[in-house]
Input
Amino acid sequence: MRKRTISLFIAGFLLVNLLSACGSSQPQTQTQEPPAAPTEEQTNLSDRTPAPQPPVQKQKPDAEPQSPDEAPAAPQPEQPEYDFSQPVPESEAVDNSYFEDAAFIGDSRTDGFLIYSGIGCGENLTSNGLSIFKLAEKKAITIDGNQYTLLEALALKQYGKVYLSLGINELGYYNDQGFYDSYCQAIDLIRESQPNAVIYIQGLIPLNEDVIAETGGASYLKNDHLQIYNDLMKKAAEEKQVAFLDLNPVFADENGQLPRDASADGVHLRKAYCQQWLDYLKTHTVSYDTLYPSQENSASSSAES
Output
């Protein structure tokens, strides 16, 4: 019995050793540490919202294109130069206030116009019997007890328009070249004292030679010579670049004369014809800017600088 017990003990011991040997032949499982948590840089970028990037600054071109609303206006055509070889064309009628800053230089015809036309304004610088030859010499105006020539009186203030009408009394001189030269000189003197005024040269209204003869008027008062003077006045206006008003055709009848009913002496106009004269002046005006656009632009440029 004892031997059996010892045998069983030995067998058990051997079995335990055998089992231990078998266990040691199996590969040992190494315990791995769990991986460290991924850093922010190691996380999957596809799962992240990309950070906003600053806008790309584009280099501006020298001149960015403008939208249609901001596009510059198309250049305006240049104003054509005024044609001083032609009379002032008909224009929209002005009212009498246009003449408030006007001066009228002339003889008894112009004086009658200012009295009977109904103009109601304008400086009266006239003298009965005055001629272009004596314009700078004859002391025909009295102001505050002092004697002035018409040109000296004109220079005492500034006007926006100057109307010059002389020529009837000169017909008896028979000095066409002198007439032309004197008119050119008168324009120069007027421009010198009135640099910003529109200077109008008024052509001579025709005469009625029959009435002149019937009333004992001067024999030198002839329309053919008057027309020569009109042509010379027009030539002077063109040369000196001032406005010319061609009144003669407006008042000439079919014979080229002033209508018989227009004048009691064939020279000076009755009231209705003075009013017609005024109507002509009101519908034949021109601005300083139209006459001299380049000078206006130069003045503007000087002011801006």
